[in-house]
Design a protein that fits this description.
The complex is a heterodimer. Chain A is mostly helical. Chain A has 17 helices and 6 strands. The chains are: A mainly alpha, B mainly alpha.
Chain lengths: ~325, ~325
């Protein structure tokens, strides 16, 4: 290696490239920042024109941050008469916020439930697809299987199928089996969608683990099963974790199946968030609060686990 | 080598012990491990597909359970292929596909090229750029609807700030001539990072010595770009186009939340139209035929494209 290489860009080129990329990144963040801000505005501030973008302050562009959006997101409220309001002092800070509109909190909204459904279905299907995917990937990676390439291609090709093309019979099938609008049904469905990616990703990880360890274990008297979960699994842990993140993000974000196959019991957050209605039209601060809470975990995950995630995204291209 | 060791150990091991060591045979384990996956895929992917094909030849309506189901041959297919409205949906889809792919390829490649200059902190900024594509498309559609609100929306404000146009003089989602562009903008915002990442993988796969050789031959930077960088990244770029093409042909959640297919049916992409037929008008048989047609179209186009891609790779 020489200290000078023609492929290393000059300082000025780097500076220019950096500036342009950072500029793009900042522009790309505007919608996300805006939504996060809107979650802390009062309804009139959220729809004021020109937009208010400074937190606090008395200038025309400033707004007083409030948790109203979040309170509205998690509660249901009713309007009450002045006598009732006078007779019953506010019970909590949240109640106090609602009082300014002559309202009282009567109970929790459905957002909590929907969010919980997203978590149950997301983690359930992730666990199942990683579990099944790990087994299948191990078998494809270590054993001679007749028609292995064809089977692997079959597994991958199911991912190319448009969801709407299979949604009709799945809808009918779920209706007949009593799986419509159940957690189990959605978990099975998301598992079926995710498993192809899980098998392929995990197989590429397993292929990278040398077989010598297992062979040594087999000679030491381990059975295949023992060798699999005591020797191979610990080594594949990183691969399994990053595959799990992928499956989780997909299940978390999915909308088409969720909106067609769930209505109440098992409805996840994505079909629910847009239906949040406030007084006199859509309650934008509450929607923005819901959107923020819903997107935040994915953004945090992405930033923390960027190396593994980026590998998964470009996986199709790099493998060839 | 090590396999022979195993065999040797196996031969010298007493029979009962050997059985315990081996436990289940490898063959049995292989099938036990694979079977659940295959079964699940058959049950939730292949079986429904076959059922769709069967339904597409009937007049079945899923909301009328007692009604007699008649086999009507290929009439569903004939009706779809001669329906002018469906061709309008196809045109809307084509417009969406063409512009999203063009913009994403141009911006995505440019960004990847800039990031590949390896300035300080490039991986942090790459992660920030990647964020939109990790988000739920339906939720993204939902909050962009807020940004696009006429008069109060941030988008109108920014446009009027830079162009001086009256912010209430245009509605991105409400005007027939602007709505198709509103979905192109959001999809580009969301998915450019995907093309960028794949281009980046392509750029990083080019070995340095090729550029060094070109430098020795005194090839200009401009020439190096067109004769080394572009051809080497092209297979990656084409793959990104394939993925985006398939995804956007299926596009549903983002656009449903953003425009719902409106105004009129200017942004009613084929999958939105399909959902209407299947789950709002409940013409199950008809919608099944529609689904099959779309499915065949995607696979046909994709396989022609893959052939072209392989030719590029061979060069």
């Amino acid at each position: 290696m020489t200290s000078f290489s023609v492929t290393t860009p000059s300082g000025r080129t780097k500076w220019l490239a950096g500036t342009l990329v950072i500029l793009y990144a900042l522009i790309t963040m505007i919608p996300l920042v805006w939504i996060a801000l809107t979650g802390f505005k009062s309804p009139p501030d959220a729809i004021s024109y020109p937009p208010k973008y400074i937190i606090g302050g008395d200038s025309e562009a400033g707004f007083q941050p409030t948790l109203e959006g979040y309170v509205n997101l998690f509660t249901t409220r009713t309007r009450q008469t002045q006598e009732y309001l006078d007779a019953n002092p506010p019970e909590s800070w949240a109640d106090e916020i609602v009082r300014q509109y002559d309202m009282v909190i009567v109970g929790p909204s459905k957002f909590g439930e929907r969010f919980l459904n997203s978590i149950i279905i997301g983690f359930g299907s992730t666990f199942l697809s990683v579990f099944l995917g790990t087994l299948a990937a191990y078998a494809f990676s270590r054993f001679k299987i007749p028609l292995a390439d064809d089977l692997l291609f079959f597994i991958l090709s199911t991912r190319m199928m448009p969801p709407i093309a299979v949604a009709i019979p799945i809808f009918l099938m779920f209706r007949n089996l009593g799986l419509s609008d159940t957690h189990l049904g959605m978990i099975l469905l998301y598992t079926a969608v995710n498993i192809s990616l899980a098998v392929w990703l995990l197989k590429s990880f397993m292929d990278g683990i040398p077989t010598e360890y297992e062979e040594a274990a087999l000679i030491d008297g381990y059975t295949r099963f023992q060798a699999f979960y005591k020797v191979v699994l610990p080594q594949a842990a990183t691969g399994i974790a990053s595959t799990a993140i992928f499956c989780l993000i997909f299940a978390w974000n999915e909308y088409a199946f969720a909106v067609l196959l769930t209505t109440a019991e098992a409805q996840t957050a994505p079909p629910f968030i847009p239906t949040i209605i406030g007084v006199g039209g859509l309650d934008w601060p509450a929607i923005a609060a819901g959107v923020t809470l819903f997107l935040l975990p994915v953004m945090v995950f992405t930033i923390l686990l960027r190396k593994h995630l980026l590998r998964g995204i470009t996986f199709g291209a790099v493998r060839k | 080598m090590s396999e022979r060791t195993i065999e040797r150990v196996a031969r010298t091991t007493p029979a009962p012990l050997a059985r315990r060591i081996k436990g289940l045979s490898d063959r049995a384990i292989a099938w036990i491990f694979i079977a659940p996956t295959i079964f699940l895929l058959l049950a939730i992917n292949i079986f429904p597909l076959i059922w769709t094909i069967q339904l597409s030849f009937t007049n079945y309506k899923a909301n009328r359970v007692g009604r007699e189901v008649k086999n009507i041959g290929t009439r569903n297919y004939e009706r779809i292929l001669t329906d002018g409205d469906i061709w309008l949906n196809m045109q809307a889809t084509a417009h969406f596909l063409f512009w999203t792919i063009l913009l994403q390829v141009l911006i995505g490649f440019a960004l990847a090229w800039l990031i590949n200059k390896k300035f300080r902190g490039n991986d942090l900024w790459t992660t920030i750029i990647v964020l939109p594509m990790m988000l739920s498309p339906a939720v993204v559609g939902n909050f962009w609807k807020f940004l696009y609100q006429p008069q109060i929306g941030l988008f109108n404000y920014i446009v009027s700030f830079f162009t001086g146009r009256d912010p209430s003089s245009f509605e991105m989602l409400g005007q027939v001539n602007l709505a198709p562009w509103s979905i192109v903008i959001v999809d580009t915002w969301m998915w450019t990072p995907f093309v960028m990442l794949i281009c980046l993988a392509g750029l990083r796969s080019i070995p340095d010595y090729i550029y060094e050789a070109a430098e020795i031959d005194r090839a200009s930077k401009w020439r190096q770009f067109w004769t080394i960088t572009v051809p080497m990244v092209l297979p990656f770029l084409m793959l990104a186009v394939l993925f985006r093409g398939i995804e956007n042909f299926k596009m549903f959640d983002l656009v449903v939340q953003l425009t719902g297919g409106g105004p009129g049916s200017t942004t009613e992409l084929t999958s939105i139209n399909l959902k209407r037929e299947a789950f709002e008008k409940w013409r199950t048989g008809y919608a099944s035929a529609y689904a099959i047609i779309l499915f065949v179209a995607v696979f046909g186009l994709a396989s022609i494209y893959v052939k072209a891609l392989n030719k590029v790779k061979e060069r």
